[in-house]
Amino acid sequence: MKTGVIGLGAMGGPMALNLHRAGHLAAVWNRTRAKAEAIAAETGCALAADPAELARHCEFVITCVSADEDLLAVIDALLPGLEAGKIVGDTSTVSADTAREAARRLQPGGAAFIDLPVSGGVEGARKGTLAMMAGGSAEVVDRARPVLAALAARVVHMGPVGSGQATKAVNQIMVAGIVQGISEALAFGQAQGLDMDKVIEVIGGGAAASWLLQHRGPTMVRGEYDVGFKVALHLKDLRICQEMAAAKGATLETVAATMEQYRSLIEQGHGDEDISSLHRLKRAQFR
Ligand code: NAP
Question: Does residue 35's CB lie within 6 angstroms of at least one atom of ligand 1?
Answer without folding.
Answer: yes
